[in-house]
Automatic annotation (TrEMBL):
<protein>
    <submittedName>
        <fullName>SRPBCC family protein</fullName>
    </submittedName>
</protein>
<dbReference type="InterPro" id="IPR023393">
    <property type="entry name" value="START-like_dom_sf"/>
</dbReference>
């Protein structure tokens, strides 16, 4: 299977510095992830701003109660510009998630997510992606956009 690419742009009604401050705290992922994913951060991240090399451990159950351990690493940070997280262990064969931030100059920030992912299991993963994985991933991004609208 060729890796899939998803891109989603959201306007956050906060200045860049405030937007960055929120998104650079891994503990805030819980506020942005839909409850049906059963997202649980296992690493002690409360009050910690992310840094390059930071490894974060999660437990997720997005598909009919099937649980997965997930380990991501923050591999790149350019403050107030972007950060990248890559899966090290987890349910995907590939997960490379770029988060880009752009000051719109009017008290708002444009946030663009670029995700490259690949379902596991070769041809079976391709079928799973076609049947439900892509919709699930897209749904998480849509739910996050809705959460941003409610939070801010």
């Amino acid at each position: 299977m060729t890796p899939r690419r998803l891109e989603k742009t959201t306007i956050v009604p906060l200045p860049l510095a405030e937007t960055w401050a929120f998104f650079s705290r891994p503990e805030n992922l819980n506020k942005l992830t839909p409850p049906e994913v059963n997202f649980d951060i296992k690493s002690p991240v409360a009050g910690v701003e992310m840094y390059e090399g930071m490894v974060i451990q999660y437990r997720i159950s997005p598909f009919a109660g099937i649980g997965f351990d997930w380990l991501t690493e923050i591999t790149q940070i350019v403050e107030h510009s972007h950060f990248i997280d890559d899966q090290r262990v987890g349910p995907f064969a590939l997960w490379h998630h770029q988060h880009w931030f752009k000051d719109l100059g009017d008290g708002r920030t444009e946030m663009t997510d670029i995700l490259h992912y690949q379902a596991p299991l070769g041809p079976l993963g391709t079928i799973a992606d076609w049947l439900f994985v892509r919709r699930q991933v897209e749904g998480i991004f849509e739910a996050r956009e809705n959460a941003i609208k409610q939070l801010f």
